[in-house]
Write a structure and sequence with these properties.
Blueprint lengths: L8 H5 L7 E5 L2 E5 L4 H20 L3 E5 L3 E5 L2 E3 L3 E5 L10 E3 L4 E3 L10 E3 L2
Parallel strand pairs: 4-7
Antiparallel strand pairs: 1-2, 2-9, 3-6, 4-5, 6-8
Length: 120
């Protein structure tokens, strides 16, 4: 009988808070070190402009990492930037966004280390 060894959101919640970004995609763990300064600068600028626009127009809410987005038991990501429209605010909990579709922004700037998969 096959054994399912995919990691779950429950496993994700037990990972250490050590400054690395952990994500589980299709049950596989991915680990990314803290981003470089150009990455953080880009995320900060985009967040500032998007937040201002969203707030001024009453369109919803904008969040920056760390904020978990749970697509399924086996899919949990931590986007750099998350926009949740006013009509989908019910998807938010204090700790996560439970989402089928949401606007996520993941920055991949030059010299940014690529994420590496780790087997469980």
């Amino acid at each position: 009988m096959p054994v399912d060894i995919r990691l779950t959101y429950e496993d994700y919640c037990r990972l250490p808070n050590d400054g690395k970004r952990y994500e589980i995609i299709e049950g596989e763990l991915f680990v990314t070190p803290s981003p470089f300064r150009p990455h953080q600068r880009a995320v900060t600028r985009l967040t500032r402009h998007l937040s201002t626009f969203v707030e001024e127009n009453g369109l919803g809410e904008v969040f920056v990492a760390p904020f978990d987005v749970v697509f399924s038991r086996f899919d949990v990501v931590e986007p750099d930037l998350l926009y949740v429209s006013k009509g989908r605010l019910a998807l938010l909990t204090e700790k996560t966004c439970r989402a089928l579709r949401t606007w996520l922004w993941k920055s991949f700037l030059p010299r940014q280390p690529k994420r590496t998969g780790q087997s469980s």
